[in-house]
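Quick start: read one record
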Amino acid sequence: MFTIYGYNTFNPEKAMLAAEELGIDYRYVKVELGRQEHKSPEHLARHPLGKVPVLEHDGNFIIESAAISRYLSRLHDHRLYATDPLQAAHIDGVMDMLICHVGPQAGTHFWQEVIRPGFFKEPTDTAMVDGAKLLLGSVLPALDAFLSDTEFLCGDEVTLADTTAFPYFRVQESTSMDISEYPHLTRWYKAFAARPSVQRLLDKLASQPTLLPSA
């Protein structure tokens, strides 16, 4: 039995989307960050830093979304990944580019434009948002170029690079993050959003709506 402990933010969504693409039957358990459930002794036993996502499988806990995604892939004949070392390195390289360069900027957008005003009633720091846009502008052209002659980020088949990327770019649905000037990236995003795996993911997230922090 697979259980993913998470929250409705992009890091848990990356692990969940990989599971959906692999056709894995898993249970989603929402950890309410606003109510400090991630700092409970029960959750700290799963993740020593009190983070999400965490995958529980056969009594073992796997942390970090990329590690979870690779683990699930290896259990399913390396689907979404690769047994060939060169191709695996290519997928890893794009995943690392996304995690190191896109993720922090998507996180800034989400924190400044959703979390601060919505949860803490604080104003958005527009300078931080502008800085995120500038930094994204240095990496998005490369991702757009990857997609100039392929359907997906690492070729013509879905890989973990795509399941890592999509939740980051989904942040644009609730913030001012914008990829519209990148035609190949925009085409990829729209096509990926229509995949059945994404609809299943969204259905799971909607089944456990976010609660506001306790007073």
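The chain is about 55% helix and 10% strand.
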